[in-house]
Structure formats: structure tokens, C-alpha cells
Amino acid sequence: MNADRFASGIIKWRWAIIVLTFVIVGLISSGITSIGFSSNYRVFFSPDNEQLVAFETIQNTYSKSDNVLMVIEPKGGKVFDRDVLAAIQDLTERSWQLPYSTRVDSITNYQHTRAEEDDLIVADLVEFPEDVDLNYVENVALNEPLLVRRLISPEAHVTAINVTVQLPQLSESEMPEVVAAARKLSREFEEEYPSLSVYMTGSVMLGNAFSESAQKDMKNLMPIMLMVIIVTLWLLLRSFTGTIATVLVIFLSVLTAMGMFGHLGWTLTGPSTSAPTVITTMAVADCVHILVSFLFNLRQGMQKEAAMQESIRINLQPIFITSLTTVLGFMTMNFSEVPPFRDLGNTVAIGVIAAFFLSVFFLPALVCILPVSATKQAQRKSKAMDSLAGFIIDNRRGVLIGSGIVTLVLFALIPTNQINDDFIGYFKNSVEFRADTEFTADNLTGMYNIAYSLEQGESNGISTPEFLRQIEAFTDWLKAKDEVTNVETITEIFKRLNKNMHGDDQTYFKLPENKELAAQYLLLYEMSLPYGLDLNNQLNVDKSSVRILITMENIVTSETLKLEQEIAQWLDKNTDIETYYAASPNLMFSHIGKRNVDSMVMGVGYALVVIVLIMCIVLRSLKLGAVSVIPNIVPIGATFGIWGVMQGDVGISIGTGVGMILGIVIDNTVHFLSKYQRARREKDYSAEEAVRYAFSMVGTALWVTTFVLVAGFMVLALSDFNMNAYMGIFTACTITLALIFDFFALPALLLWLDKAPGNKARSMSKAENA
What is the pTM of this model? Predict the structure, then answer.
């Protein structure tokens, strides 16, 4: 079926198409009711992710480490006060009531050991706040390595209660349930103790922040996006019917995509919540091209049906190609190491496919049954496009050289970027989780940590003196590093027990020299510990391995990877420990960033080859197919140059979004080249005339769609979730540069390539009269 017959069929069966569209979309959109939100940060990793597997292994070997850290700041600036200690003890006891809590640690219930004649006394550091010796408690706490910069600040102005939870992971509501209970407890505590302020961080709060940001974006960004679209379309098209029809196409496209999202059983996460906003933006482009040509035809005196039929005829192929390349671009996100970005890419791809069918079936059918008129304002836009074409034609050499110089300068700045992420920085400063986490980092401890499981290999082998000495040396080396704030290690307990068992003689604050003696000390200590405060968070069941928890400043991923490498080198060089592995949420995020970029480079490479082949086939020209690559690669590279100067860190979202961006920016090139090629082949125009023709036919549509796309992606910049915000800013910048390149460098490049002896330029008016 050719384009003419297709277009006439749309006009003929317009009522049936409209009714059938609503029925199909209605059925598909029923899947929306099945969509849920995930608040688990583990969704960012595939089940076979190496670091996730290591993390789960440590979680299953030792106690779970998911936590809520409640940081308490006395307004008087002094923790070691009777009233403050009584309040901390109260909150410690009440924290056991939080859902799924398995352990609560604070300075008041810290299991302090001391010698009393021949007995080892193990008890809470603060049992009775009203009678406690404040100087003694302060001295013990501030000299205990397991407490300082973990549960008490060196200045004793801030303290913390760490609640460890064991989530069954049977429902997505578990984490929000814990957070809701913790917030309720925090509010009640602050009301009862107005002189104390509570800040909450930890892995549970992190996971919940992902979910809350996602839900907030869904609630706030879509209305803003629709408002931007409606106002922009009205101002640029001056057509009430066209605006309403486009909004309907957007609405139906989003319903279709999100309905399929639900039917496929996917779960919304931080990145995938931007899908409706991105689909809204992408759906506009096809509609604008059809409507701009339609309104142009009306101004030329055509009847409504004929104007629409002609618009479909000249736009069907380029719209199909742009939709195909856009889908390919978003499908490259399946190369990402991050499952939520795969969901985003697949969802938007579904939305783009839906938008294509709605644009070529539903939109023309709807417009043809509604009243519509064309204003004269667009004539001024056409004159502006003709003037721009004239400028490019007259100054082609200067434009080409200038474009080349700017490109080289911006490309030279690309190396200023580095692959880096900061998962606290995933959230804007206004997000409560980030504010509380930064307060904690500034006043107490970092949230970033790495857990190391070091295996001795034999049952009860961790009491071996040589193994303990190697652990102590490792711990001392770690403590000397600037980025390390605290090291939780079993050797501190062994040294303290050895001192206690020698009458608290400080000279015995060292590791036991006998394996059997060390094992006896450990057994005696464990038997004295209360429920919930055992050593399962540091030792495995048969005591053949230990866990060392390294807490760090809030460092970026590149620094985390560097530290991991340094640790591996130190362990290999200075110990005979053969089996060890490291894991933590921030270590997982650190590794996935680099792997994600590597995999996306491969994906974009494949997509680029396929897109070039498609362009060569559609344009029936190897030369134009090859040329089509330049105006799409250059803007992406140029944006990386600008990004390197303005920001400098390429995170997961930008690394993943390159393929998506490629699929978007090529749309303008497809439309411009298709009109240029039509003029050259069908109308036998010269290169200069073909450039004028392309500008007159699609120039207005291109800058209208670009304006809408940029506005749409800039709406993402309002997101509290910086993954989405950065992706939106980067994409908007690239699309803007792509339009500039398509409007200036591409025509100049075409004129240079098509330059041939004896090919005399003719004016457009002469060509039309020929």
C-alpha cells in the first residue's frame, strides 16, 4: 500500500479508527492498576551482579546490615549529660519496637567489659543514668575505637542509635513500613525531649528515598510537562484543534506504555518513573510534523481532507524512520547494567511505537472531524526559515569552518570528564534523606562503608594468634587512611578482653598470645552478652571467618574503587589470607558505573551501525547515509565537552542515556535529509534550492519539536532525583546543539558535498515556474 492509498484510507475510516483506538488503549491501560513502587536499592543490580552476589553472601554469613541510623543532637551540645543519656536510653529501648528490628546499638547499651576481682563483668555502659559517673562513661566512650566516629563524635556533641533490621523481602511495603515507624518514633521523641534533634540516615532510609522521589516525580512532573506542552503548542501552532489532538495522542501513548508496563509485571523505580515524562515529550514530535505540514497545506488553499492526505503522504516515511531510530536508541538501554534503566528504555520504546501509530492513524482521523483553521502567523516563520537558508547558502564556507572549529574545541574538553557517581548525590539538597545524611557526615560519621569477610579456613580458627595479628595490622593500616572514619573489628574486643582478664592492666591491652586462651575469652564474653547484641555481625557460625566493617567519609565512586584496589594489594602483600571478599551498597554502585559505561559504548556502537544502514537504505544513498552520522555524533560529543567544564562527572544515568539521545537527535536529521533528497530527486532542484526547500518544509517543525523536546527534558531537571535531573539536562543540551548543527553545519556540508561543475543554482521561484 502506497502513502496515497494509506492516507485516503485514514480519511475514509476516520470514525472507526477513533473508536477502535479508544477500545484498544482502554484494554491495554488496565495494566496500570498492577504497577507498584520498589524502595529496595537492590533493584539497581541484576541478580548475577558480582558485587550483589558478594553482598548477599556476607548478609547470609553474618547478621543483616540494613539499618536505620538515628543521629541525636543535644541543643546544649553535650551528650554526656544525665538527662540526655536518659533520653538516649529511652529511645534505644523503644527502637526495639521498630518493624523487623534485630539489633539496636547505642552508647548506653554498649556492652562494656571490666574486671571485678576474678570475674569478667559485661554490662550496659549506662544502666542507670541518674546514678552514673559521667566522667567515667565519657572517658570509656571516647576511648573506645568501636564507638568513636560511629556512635559518638570525638567532641561528644552528637551521638547515634543504630537499628539493624532484617527485611523478609516478601513485600515492597516492608521498607516504607520501617521508615514510617522510625519517623513516627522520631517525632514522638522530639516532642517528649524538645532539647534533642533527631536526624535519620542508613540503608533503609536510602532505599525509601528512591521510592519517595519516584512517587513525587510521578505526581509533580507530569502536570508541569503537560502544561509546558499545551502552552508551547498553542504559541507555536496557533491551532486549538492541533493542540487538543496532540495532547490526546500524548495521553493515549502514556496510557499504552504504562499499561504494558503493568501487564509485563515491571516495578516502578527512580529512573523508570521518568518514562511518562519522556514519552510525553517524544510523542509530540510526530504530531508536530504532521500538523505543521497540514496547516501549511491549508494556507496554500487546500481543503481539509486533501491537506491532511498530503501531509501524511510526505511525512509517513520520515516519521516511520524517526520512530524506528528512536526506538532503537531507547532499546540500547538494554545494554545497561542497571535494570531500572532497561525498564525505562523499554517502556519509552513502547510509548514511541504507540505514539507513531496514534500519530498516523488517530491524529489525522481526529483532526478531520474537528473544526480547524490556519493562521497567517506561520508565514512569518516560513520567511524566517527562507532567510536562514539564504544565509547558510551565502556563507557556507564560513559556517562549515566555524562549525569545525567549535566542534574541535568542545571535543578537546571531553577528557575533563570522569566516570564518577555519588549515590548520596542522587538526591537534591532539599530531600530530607540527603540533608540528614550530610549532617551525619559532617558531625559524626560517613554513610559509606565496605564490609570485608576474611576467612581463616578452619572451624574456630579466628582465635589463631597469627590470624589475629594479621587482622590487627590490616585494621591499623586502614585507620591511618584519611578517608576512613571507623573500623569495626573483632581484634578490639580480643584486646579488651585480654586486658580485663589480667585485672584491667593496660599493659595487657593486646592480642592474646595463645589460641586456646583467646577462644576461652571469646566464649566467656559471648555467654555474657544479652539477646540481640551477640557477635553474629562480626563472626560466622563456626568462627572460621570474620567481618571487618570499614566506614568512610562520603567519597565518590572513583575513590571507593581506588580504596578497594589498595586494600586488595595490601592484603595480598602483607597477609597469607587467601579467601576474602568485599561488599556494600556503595561498592556495588561504584562498580556498576564503570561497567555500565563500557556496556553502553558497545550498545551505542551497534545502534549507530544499524541506524546508518537504515539511513542508507531509506535515502538510497551511501553518501547521505554516512553524512547522517555527523550531525548526530557531533552534538553528543560537544555536550560531553560542555559537561566536562560545567560538571565533570559522568554517572550511571548519563552513561546509559547516550543511546537514547542518539535515537532522539537523529530525528531532525532524518526529516531534513528526506526533504532535501525529495527536492533533489523528485523536483530536480539544485543543492541550493534543495536546502531552501528542506528549510521551508520542515524548518518550522524542527524548531517547534526541538523547543518542545528541550522544554520536556528540562522539566526532568526539576526532579528531586538527580539521576533523572542530570539525564534531562544533558539530553536537553544535546538536542539544542543538534538543532543548531542541523540548521547550520548540515546544510553547509550538503552544499559542499553536492558541489559539481555546471550545476547552476536556480531560485525557488524559477524552479516552481519551470
Answer: 0.81
